[in-house]
Amino acid sequence: MKKGLVRLIFKIFALIIVISISAFYLRTNVSKNIPEINFLDVGQGDSILLKLPNNKHALIDGGPDNLVIRRLGESLPFYQRKIDYIIVSHFHDDHIIGLIEVLRRYQVGAIIYIKDFKESSISKALFDKAREKQIELIGLENEMEIKYSLDCVVGILNPLIFGVKIDDNNSLITRLSCQKLSALFTGDNSLAVETALLNTDMDLRASILKASHHGSKSANLETFLRRVDPEYFVISVGVDNRFGHPFLGVLELVKKLNIKIKRTDLDKTIRFYK
Ligand SMILES: [Zn+2]
Predict the structure, then answer these.
(1) How many Å lie between the centroid of ligand 1 and the Cα of residue 203?
(2) Is the pTM of this model over 0.70?
(3) What spacing in Å lies between the alpha carbon of 265 and ligand 1's midpoint?
């Protein structure tokens, strides 16, 4: 092949790559510093990708299997290989199995996890992989805050600070609060944690509330929903799951309160940005 022709093909390829990257940037909010929440459709489990100002990324949980890798690929540009923080709400399989493959494939800055949990073969595999990759491990006993910009903060707290009983459904509570977008992620927390939160004077209001425990009746109190006062109630749940999630009574309550419902089993990956 002539040299000129090779050069031309090379230039066309380079042009295609530049156009694809620019198209991705225009299509997403990455370049605009607009925070974005992606409730990834990972079946029966939780996995939520937060895109934050200054090109920072956080992932809350990783779902029950490697489907999370495909979903991350759909929500991130191919060149985005770094996830700054992984937040492990708690150590149930439907929240952590997928994280092991995430650690293999992405460069992860740190893992923030709930302290005081029951070890399992999966949690052990997760920590082994994290140590092998020399990822910083932060076992959260109380609370912390990560500031992403002047008006965008992620707060994370361990419900044990309220003196609730140790329970393996106890999950880190994550609150995203940006100028126009706010959300509360409550993991698989139960009524006891919701009640403890209600007994504080914390500002719990958020425009998006992740349904506690996949919309189960073991959580999602009416008084809690009223206090959070969300516009959207998002249920991360698998099609025809064997747990009967979400609970019909919870769906009826949410409808009665005029809160919009989104579900990953029906809506697939759900994206919010503002
Ligand atoms: Zn769960």
Answers:
(1) 25
(2) yes
(3) 14
The CATH code of domain 33-273 reads 3.60.15.10
- Give the count of beta carbons closer than 10 Å to the beta carbon of residue 201: 5
Task: Please identify which residue in the block is written with the tokens 């029950």.
Answer: 64
Residues 172, 144: Cα–Cα separation, whole Å:
11
133 C-alpha vs ligand 1 centroid, how far in Å? 26
Between the CA of 15 and the centroid of ligand 1 the distance, in Å, is 45
Per-residue confidence band for 236, with pLDDT thresholds at 50, 70 and 90 = very high
Ligand 1 centre from 245 Cα, in Å?
A: 10
Q: How far is the CA of 37 from the centre of ligand 1 (A)?
A: 19
Kindly report, residue by residue over 189-223, the tens digit of the pLDDT. Answer: 999 999 999 999 999 999 999 999 999 999 999 99
Interior/surface letters 249-258, b for 16+ CB within 10 angstroms, e for the rest = ebbebbeeee
Which residues are within 5 Å of ligand 1 (an ion), measured at CB?
94, 188
**How far is the centre of ligand 1, averaged over its atoms, from the C-alpha of 216 (Å)?**
10
How far is residue 88's CA from residue 85's CA, in Å, rounded to a whole number?
10
